[in-house]
Amino acid sequence: MHPILSTPARILAFGATPALLLGAAFAPQAQAATPRVSETGLTATVSGTSATATVKVSATSCVTVRSLGVAVRDAAGRHLDFPQWRSNARICPTGLTVNAGTRTLAAGHYTMMGAYLDASGWHNLTAKTLIVGSGSTSAPAPKPTPTPTPTPAPAPSGGSAIPAGVASSSTPIWSEEFSNPISWGQRWVGDTSTAYRYGNHNPDDNKLDWLDTNDVSVANGVATFTAQPSSHTLENGKQAWTTGLLTTEGSKEGFQVRTGDYVEARVKLPTGTGAWPALWTWKNGNGEIDSFEYHPDNPNLLELTNHVTSGGDYYTDASAVKPGGWVTIGTKYGADSVDWYVNGVKVYSDGHGVGANWSAYLILNLSLSAGQYHAAPSGSTPITFSADYLRVYH
Asked: Exposed, middle or buried: residue 232 (CB in 10 Å: 0-12, 13-18, 19+)?
């Protein structure tokens, strides 16, 4: 994370030519056929109004898709998909099985199908009828497989609808609901980041951070990041604070956001002096888009910044942004403009974007200011920052 302004003037409270061959005949180079993905099995288990599903797929040759899971549509065509979609799913002729999460649905008839997202867009597979409230779920759907629809629909249970027009589907292609302990190594890394000069700490960026996975905990569907004084001393002689960070960089899953994605998080802003929470992206020493940075000494202000090209805003809203308050913050990584949303309302567009081929890893963390631009922590009282969910749509 870097300041919007690069100087202390920043708000302190805040070869050879190949020979030409003539007469030679060249056969056009054949392009490899796109692997065909097929659904080989789709089952659901229903208990009352709770349902879960399993989809099995195979491909004519191995292919990796961005997201794979089980889609559900009601009679009106609304998206009520099962959660826990598999990101970076590798589908081969030997097959792949994905177990969806539990979904609560009103009694009635639904259409369910395997679905996946690749570089060309969303693809629905063979559909079946899902019956909730009575009966089972094995009957083929009476209608042809619905085509993907760009119309946004209500988000999965546990969150409000995403802003209209930001995504082609209201089903996240990737999400972290914090309903289970942190999946260290598989989904998240918390003890190192290439964004930090020394891997687990980074005094050059005005931070007191010393990363410790013990400082991220999960309870009741909420992740809590805790910062507290440590016995470590930074290279500049200052005392470090251990603190929590989550990044997809270096994890087995290795999820990255890409041009066209929309990321959204619901977070509880901290109250403690020196707190510096943020949701941002990073890759290969660059790729940084700050969905938000926050400092309690500017209690109603969010810093929104595009470090990839340019653009940024100090967004102020006393009703939505305040210490100890919950707020939903979203970012659309457009090729020509990055757009920021607060509680579902667009608040800033930079008009520059990230370009057509951008991608980066996600970082959600609690940093501690070292005092250059914002006050450092005073005393030894631990500081906390919380997150309800983190979701990515396309």
From this structure: middle
* CA nearest neighbour of 344 among 162, 166, 170, 167: 162
- Looking at residue 154, its pLDDT comes to 34
pLDDT tens for 29-76 read 555 678 899 999 999 999 998 899 999 999 999 999 988 999 999 888
Segments making up each domain of the chain, as ranges: 37-149, 203-393
383-393/50-59 β-pairing: unpaired
Residue indicated by tokens 């497989």: 145
φ and ψ of 129, to 5 deg: -90, 130
Average pLDDT, the chain: 87
Are the C-beta atoms of 330 and 315 separated by less than 8 Å? no
The model's pTM is: 0.77
- The CATH superfamily assigned to 37-149 is Immunoglobulins (2.60.40.10)
Question: What is 203-393's CATH number, 1.10.3470.10, 2.40.240.10, 2.60.120.200, 3.30.1360.120?
Answer: 2.60.120.200
Tens of pLDDT, residues 152-175: 333 333 445 799 999 998 889 999
The beta strands (E) that lie in 92-205 are given as 96-99, 103-104, 108-118, 121-132, 174-176
